[in-house]
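Repro case for the chain-ordering regression, as requested:
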Amino acid sequence: MKKLALLILFSLLLLTALTAFNTGKSIFFADSYMLRAKGVEAAYWNPANLQQKKGIDFWLPITNLGICINNNSLDLDTYNYVVSRDTLNDIDKRKILDKIDGSLRSAIESNVSIVGFAFDNMSISSSLHLTGKLALSERYLDLLLYGNTDTLYVFNKSTTDAGGLGYVDITFAMGNFTLPYIPKTIPPIRAGFAVSALIGVGNAIMEEFNGYFSSSMEGADLRQDIVLHTGIGGFGQKAMLGLASNITPNLEVGLTLDNLFGNINWSLTTQETNIQVVANDIYAVNISEDFYDYSNETLDIGSYSTKLPPELRLGVLYNMPWANFSLDYLQGFKTSIITSGIGRFSLAAQFLPWEFLPLNIGVGFGNSQYPWRISYGIGYYSNKVELGLGWQSVKNFIPGYKTKGIAIGSYLKVHI
Amino acid sequence: MNKIYFTLITALILLTACDVKKPTLPSWFMDLSIPVINEKFYVSDLIDSVNIVTDENEVLTVTANGEADTNEFGTLLFTPSVQVSGFPILGSSFDLTIPFEDQEGKVGVAYAEIVEGNFQNCFRDLHPDVQQISLTFSDFYLPNNQNLVLTSNGSGNWVTTNLAGLHIGVANSNQVINELHLSFQVTPSMPAGVQVATFDFQAKEPISLGEFRGTLNNYPIGLEDSGSLVNIDYPYGLDQAINLESAYLQITLTNYLGFGSVFSGQLLATNSSGETSLIDIVDEEGNNYQIEPATEEEDPRTMEIQFGHNVSQLLQIMPTTINIINGQFLINSGTNIGNLIPTDSIHIFYTVSAPLTFTLHEHEITIAEEQEFNIPEENRERIQKNAISASLKLEIQNKLPIGASAKLFFSNTPDIDTQNPATYDIMKEAAINSADQVPGFQNVDLTLNKEELNIFTAEQVYMRFAFSFDETETPVTIHTSTSDYIHIKGMVTARVFIEKEED
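-- result from build under test --
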């Protein structure tokens, strides 16, 4: 049991060691960014918009980053409330558990730029992507707070899960191709593509998590089966296709299909860890030191792949002299550690009281797997330099006591 | 990179001016339910095939057995009481017949080895011409199977003849010797009618006989001191709470004697209070049991005697000992020839069986042994700090026809007196009904509050257990089938206080 606890703790530590997934600047707009990304960033959002009028657009190392840490249940207010209590009464316990909808889920996503530059209608870039997630069944907390007041507690992968993925992409993108054979009555449609070589850093995925704990007059039974795959060192690829069109001078629409052929094959070090804890018919009168069977077996296994399911993104951007507005819709084809099979909308606006001082706000509408969030950002713009800092609050309008998570992003681009 | 994140997060927190309180773990109460037991205790598990068995009707039966012997038969005393005085011996040869019977009329000898014995004879008034008179005993034999022959030169003195080593009669003879046949032969020969001497003979002292063949009548053989035929040790003073309904005594007799006998005796039962009960060992018609003799075909002879009709009378007083008193085997062979050797005996193997059909009456039984628990310091501290209350929930299915109530006494000092509340700290009581009253599971809740739990914060805890059966008006029987058991399920539910452990 101690080892199992350590494993869970390790998973948590692993999670906190992971960093982000989004490009830094997209955090400013709550990911309503498909038609806003220009320069190097377009390679990750819509390569159709790769078009440099002149010069080179540089992405400096590290300065473009984003990190998001969130959970679906707990906030600072709850934390302060809990730690300020000497003793938790039943109302306090219920207050904690009512905030958790079946599972306490947390995620961390991060993206850090390594290097990138764009010129003409192409770009070459590299960035580090790290993401991790942890889900802990509400029933564990129920057990911890109330004790085993029910006769049966079932745990499975739908409510308890953990995983992590880290990889570096080297991406080449070209865009601004005008699609031929388009009737003249239809505005020109730009197209682009991006191909990425993926270098896998590490991967951990829980293949199986099944368990139960029952306690009744018939005895106590416990079973927990965990199968964990870990891989270090791998290679893969993915591709993105993008389309964009200015329907009117002020209205632009776009579409991307990302993660095409997305796959990372883990081959350098791959292992499968099987953990099993079984105890049957436990009674106090017959309990002994070996009342349970515990096995922890780690085997070297052959290579395995992490699929990156395709994602479809639709976007619309409306430009005005003093502001612009965008609406994005993202639909993954399958749920994975980096994609969601449930679609979501995001809406963003950028206000330009002065051209050099963009003020940004965005709203990401949530779903059952993705808590809603709101973003704020401020930046500086000139022909040579762009920089900015933004933050995001999950399930609360501003980062504060009720926030379920925060994200921060920064960007720094140089144009010469 | 982490420093950058930390800086950014800190900046963000400062920006929003959130107050993050120092992380401290609050305490809380939680309820733990721990299954304690789920077990069926079968009556048949009590069977040890030695003292607790099951009978053909699957009734649990308490049994005890042992053995006893008569004394070895030893030497047989034959007292002939022969007296011949002044018998004139006439002529050259002469035959004389003398009655040779047991003075008490008990022993008739057809053949017997003489272990010890003698007789006296005397020849006097010898005729001057006679040189020697020889006397032949046709019924006494030397070890070489030659007849006993005595000679006399007429000294006129009594001569004692040691008979040890001689035997009377012929082996395997079926003819009882009632007379001694004596033959006189005079040397030299004398004319007929001339008195050549006067003969005196006497055999009055008992003759000890070894191997014997003949008849025995009105001959008793006593049992050795049988001691306690049965010692019954009732656990926990159970004898005070029950009355057995029936019991059986089976005696297996092994008779090595070639004589039948009539067995008589009495069974004396004594209980722990000194109360006694006495019954005759007779059959249902009131007759003594007849023991058949060993024969060539069946040696020794074995027979079984079953008592059942009146042994239960003994057990009404729940005896702790049962003795055979006045036990004897009386041999009356009549004219039938039997045989024996001194080492012959009668062996008794007995079995007392008491099917557990009994009537219960109210009597509290206190388990003599006081349980002592040593509570480790770590657990004592946990109980003191964390345990708020505890309850033991039991589900008991009693498939037996008896009910009982149990009491548990706890104390931090030894020598609990269940009758003296000053000697214990807490007492918990639970009642279990019989299967007739409640055929399904019965719930029993034993709850300990915080104050009562504090007993377990001491290093030593003492416990004593007492129980009493529910009184039954009619006899109940304990069976041993697979459906006769007590099923106990138990769950301890404890309310514990969770708090951060001090460093």
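Ordering looks correct now. The radius of gyration of chain B is 43 Å.
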